[in-house]
Model the fold of this input.
Amino acid sequence: MRKWPLKLKFGIYAAVLTTLALITTAGLTLPYIYFRQLAELDDTLTDDAKTLFNALENMPGELSGRQPVSSRFIATALKRRYIELRGPQNELLYRSSNLRDNDISNLPNGLVTVKFNDPSLPTWNARIGTFRSNSITLRVGTRLNTIERMQQDLRSAFSYAIPLTAIGVFLGGLVLGRRALRPVAAMTAAAERISAQQPSERLPTPKGRDEIARLTTVLNNSFDRLQSAYTAAAQFSADASHQLKTPIAVLRAGLEELRHCDALKEEDLEMIDALLGQTRRLHALVEDLLLLAQVDAGRLRLEPVALDLVPCIDILADDVDALGEDKELIIERETPPHLVAKADARRVKIVLQNLGENAVKYNKTSGRIRIRAQQDKKWVILRVANTGTPIPEGERGRIFERFSRVAGENIKGHGLGLNIARELARAHGGDLTLRRSDEKWTEFELRLPSANGSEG
Done:
């Protein structure tokens, strides 16, 4: 139930609570009505006993206790009652025929419920009261079929009413839950639109002054503060990167000019070459930071066109061959004649360059690099794989993070290449993922939108 929609949970909880409430009500109501009717019946039987005793007192002559009583002294309204009349010596004076073979002579005083049997009829319950007056014992009773029928009718009514009510409450709970959560759904949709490209989007404030309206106000205020901080950080990164480009370029030009000075010794030239190498690395880092700042600020501008990636893959293969010359790498390639993607050529070349450099840096001597590509109606898919030490399981979720380096690796770099490549792929509407990393291959998959809509 954890993953079920909240409105569905609301309907289920309401239905369950209603069902429990109705079952509790039925459990209390049925016994109450039963004992209430039984008490009323006991009062009626007591009144019937008084009526019979009055009739006996008005009989002609004296009731000796041994003389049988004629049925004509039984009131018509009491003919359907179970009646037994006994004298001082427990001699039988009168017994109604509807008692049949059921013996009620040994019942205790007061009113009790007994079970009657008849071979030709189902067993039934009766309420019998024992009363005494002037040495005469009177037992009078009646069937409990009316009360039992009422109980059965109530049970049947509850058995239909409880599930139907539960269903009705469930459906009503769905409707009410959907209506109550409508502002939350609007907030969710608006929150999904808030991104680096649309940082000014805000949650719609619902009408009223309830808890959801207050929560919306608090969240919007938080988004305002986050946007201000995010914009300031992105602007600072962009400004700093841009401002660093000029002094680095001047420093690099000065070092290159100084290198051509004839008065320098060999060790001086080696030091200048080392400094030039560091300035190139610094320049590359500044370019990467400036690119990421543009991505963060939502100012990255793409110029997507129908681009055939095969020439780009040719350049990638040449670069990999040149970079991996010292390691004597073997390059395997499997690509179709054409791969037409909708992409920005300059940005895609950066992605491929980072993938190629990564495949060379983390490869082993005499290792292999495999480049495979395919195209379908929706995607152009490029996979770049290399042999070498597999990425540890615990590090695979971090390799796309900025400045992230695989633990234990002593390889030059800033840890920005994969992050930049993935950001550029996603800016195109595609993605870059780690497809596998085991003892045989570490493979990355680049997906870019297809431009021609045909099978490749």
